[in-house]
Amino acid sequence: MPGGFAEGVAFPRDTAEVAALVASARRVLPVGAQSSLTGGATPRGDVVISTRSLDQIGEITANSVRAGAGVPLAALQRRLAASGLYYPPVPTYDGAFVGGTIATNAAGAATFKYGSARQWVEALTLVLVDGSIVELRRGASSAAPDAHFVLPRQGREPLRIPAPTYAMPDVPKLSAGYYARAGMDLVDLFVGSEGTLAVITAATLRVIPRPGTCAALLRCASDREAVAVTAALRREAAASWRGEGPLDVAAVEYMDHHALAAVPDEAFARAGLPRPDRTSAMLLVQVEVPREVDAALERLQGVLAACGVDGDPHVALPGDESGAARLFELREAVPASVNALVAAAKAHAHPDIEKTAGDLIVPFERLEEALALYREIFERRGLRYAIWGHVSDGNLHPNVIPRSIDDVERGRGAILEMARGVIAMGGAPLAEHGVGRSALKQRLLRELYGERGIEEMRASKRALDPEWKLSAGVLFPEPL
Ligand SMILES: Cc1cc2nc3c(=O)[nH]c(=O)nc-3n(C[C@H](O)[C@H](O)[C@H](O)COP(=O)(O)OP(=O)(O)OC[C@H]3O[C@@H](n4cnc5c(N)ncnc54)[C@H](O)[C@@H]3O)c2cc1C
């Protein structure tokens, strides 16, 4: 997000330094790797607290790791791999930090199997707005029946915090303001709060034994075929988790024909693949293979044949790291190529052109209908666009490919119309990227929970941050 300006930037090395900074500054904005796609990590006159020096990885046990907020997930994953362990909820951009991914409740491709960051956070070290340090462990404090928390503070009166009560949509991932559920754990109020309630300085995360994986890239003739294949793979995965089959699919990623058209020929050449014809979509399937690779691949072939998929998938077998990397690079070339087209339009057509994209999720049974709706809304407005994303979760990113500033304006209208459509289907317009400072995303948050929901969030914030010192303007505007 352009236009950021800061009063200063600090690089604290431990929680005590963060506490001293927060206590003394007028306004603070904690940041991680600043990979936010919503402007959440863009300052507006705040003191920026960079967490990049909080980069210690502490104790690793068979099922947990202690990590500083500034540890990049890629580095965490490397350290865990050396002990045969794995942290599942990693976003496509794995340079994001532990603190940033907790603050946005980030999610990766494998959410339908593993959930988002929330399910993996066991404990948090927090700095509150007055500089007090709180160690919060899951299970230690939950919302009372009359919807409030009591937060004990060292040497001070416990803090009473109203808990939000709005109904959240029932979808596998959501990054839409504060979590709300009767009897919820206090840890969950901070996960996904986008830096507006406290600064996270360290976390204890759950980890699991590192699974063997293989990847398969395949071509589908239509959206209908792609959704049918994904549905069949989800059923296979569920059966394998019950111990009733060999095909343990963790994630399916989708790229539509417009997204593939944006990718340059060299990206296909690097992946060692021919460019598919102009109407095909592609799916990248991640399969976990504890032992029976052959049985899993045989079953995959069977599912593809039953769904009428033409041609064999391109497979990277377990251990073929470079083969898998080539397939994932092609997937990553999609957002990179579309972002390059947006940047070119900004340079040549209008300086205010910006990325205009949805982060929409629907219950999986409504996905085919939702996808048709996204296309109809873009096409009715005469917009150029591309759609890709985490199809096994029902979470897709419809992106405008703007040619003019007018396209950006019409694109915002399109995303708003899509948001209303997905909310009506029981989904949400804010799945994983959060809300940040984006005026459009803040409007979508109001569409989702109404003014009353936003007031409930403000009440929780007011209890923890009465002077609006932390990340002011993120999630919702400051009160006048
Ligand atoms: C190419 C690309 C792909 C992406 N793919 C995904 C994806 O698959 N899934 C997904 O969920 N997201 C994705 N994202 C978005 C982004 O990576 C995530 O939102 C990520 O969680 C942000 O982490 P970060 O460390 O960069 O945080 P930042 O961008 O620095 O900050 C994000 C927000 O968290 C707050 N914050 C940061 N650190 C702290 C802290 N220690 N304490 C309190 N608040 C804090 C900030 O104030 C800000 O509001 C993608 C982004 C890019 C650029």
Give a written overview of the molecule.
The protein is α+β, with helices and mostly antiparallel strands. Among the domains are: 57-141 and 185-209, Uridine Diphospho-n-acetylenolpyruvylglucosamine Reductase, domain 3 (2-Layer Sandwich); 211-345, Alpha-Beta Plaits. It has 13 helices and 19 strands. It has a seven-stranded antiparallel β-sheet, with helices on both faces. A five-stranded antiparallel β-sheet has the order 4-5-11-7-8. Helix 11 packs antiparallel against helix 12 (405-424). 51% of the residues are buried. The protein binds flavin-adenine dinucleotide (FAD).
Summary, kept brief:
The chain has 480 residues and is an alpha+beta fold. The chain is built from 13 helices and 19 strands. Among the domains are: 110 residues, 2-Layer Sandwich (Uridine Diphospho-n-acetylenolpyruvylglucosamine Reductase, domain 3); 135 residues, 2-Layer Sandwich (Alpha-Beta Plaits), CATH 3.30.70.2190.
